[in-house]
Amino acid sequence: MKTEKLRLENGYDENISRAAEILKCGGIVAIPTETVYGLAASAYDENAINKVFEAKGRPQDNPLIVHIATMEMLSEIAKDIPNVAIECAKRFWPGPFTMVLPRTDKTAPAVSAGLSTVAVRMPDHKAALDIINKSGLPLAAPSANTSGKPSPTTAYHVENDLDGKIDAIVFGDECDVGVESTVVSFCCNPPRVLRPGAVTVEDLKEIIPDIAVDKAVLAEPSKGAKVESPGMKYKHYAPKTECYLVEGSGEEFADFVNAEENCLAVCFLEDSERIKIPKLVYGNAKNEATLAHTVFSVLREVDGFGVKSVFIHAPSKQGVGLAVYNRLIRATGFKVIHLSKTVIGLTGPTGAGKSSLRFVAEKKGFYVVDCDKIARIAVEKGSNGLNALIKVFGEDILLNDGSLNRKALAEKAFSSPQNTELLNKTIFPFIKELVFAEIEKNRKVILDAPTLFESGINSICQKTIAVLADRDIRLSRIIGRDGISEEAALLRIKAGKSDEFYKKNADFVIYNNNDSEKFIAEFENLLSSIE
Q1: Kindly report the CA angle at 386 between 382 and 392, in degrees rounded to 5?
Q2: What predicted TM-score, i.e. pTM, was given to this entire model?
Q3: DSSP per residue over 230-297, as a string?
Q4: Which one of 138, 274, 314, 401 has the lowest number of neighbouring Cβ atoms within 10 Å?
């Protein structure tokens, strides 16, 4: 498909008319709005809506927002509209504000992803309003990007993602707001914010004093949950590079990133001079609107740096800052580093005996995250983690009841260093998700993680400790612990990392060669020095 480029500066009226004609004929067109560029289609045309989902690669269970130009259009697509919604429309329309209301039967079912509601807004953008009026159609228009990538705030972002996949792109100015609209559901009492935006919670409280904020604004929705609004899914707006959101003061953030290697800092203007590593500035911490305007453009740049990790200084959760935080927590897959917390990584090769330190850590007030236990949860029967392993290692790693046959997986995964690496690469993302959820709930944490460095989880640790032991001692422990042959135990040792690997990567190394009293005392001293 050849995508038409409709440049408004080369003839405004003609290109508005052309965009409207394409839409009336069942085509899909990327149009500018004040928030982000939207991929528009007639809200009445099921086939056109399906083209939008196909072009974006968007899941069919993610509802779309319908854009209108008049209040008459609202009554065509929504019903049972409460008075408080009308009050909000008078205050915030046209503007970056979306209302979820009971839907009529006029819109295509795909618009609402099977729900009985419809999300609708009136954009504050001349070209968008003119296209709607010229076509005479309410337009369903999610962001005009490949699903999951940062939303587009320029026509060139759209062109980069969707050229050759859609009928036309309307080239207008860069979007003013920079993040998608605020979404509020009026199908509950009190109304509830489903997605924050430039119309803030504080603004809404002036009309709806008891307005609620959905827990999914700052947290992952439960698995399989039917979402009421775009932007509530687990991961959106994400670069390919591993990204982390970092909470802390400017000084703490600078000290943290300056100590890291092969990484990029995404920082506030106020942080910039302190940071000595590669960096991108995404606005002024005291002016959250600047962060909103720039955040998606910056997220589109980070992959070009070729680094291992990106650390993004977290904004305030007040005002428009909440909208930016909401986008960033999804862009990072809910991986948040709290610099006010103590997180220590504990690792070592199999058989070294690091798990025996758990009671010592708990005695000193640490919450111990057993990453082996979390790894088992990540591959429970029917889980996404187990499904990923099946794709890599085959269905013969399953028991008859469909659960994981751990012995069969171990035989395959530990048969070579290459297979061990493949195992780790497959399962690490699912383990990380659960680990970060545990860290979020506790202030002092020890991560008991055999693959601390291989998984990259060491990036969130203030310090790391490796427990080592002589080879023969490890061999005896593995045989006794797992009830396997010496040959099988040797294979596990061979598949693991060398002592030199841990010495090179860990901040501290302690030995556990059967002198338990000395071993425990050394660990206690380390914890005291780190705290």
Answers
A1: 140
A2: 0.76
A3: TT-SS--S--SSEEEEEES-HHHHHHHHHT-SSEEEEE-TTTGGG--S-EEE--BTTBHHHHHHHHHH
A4: 401
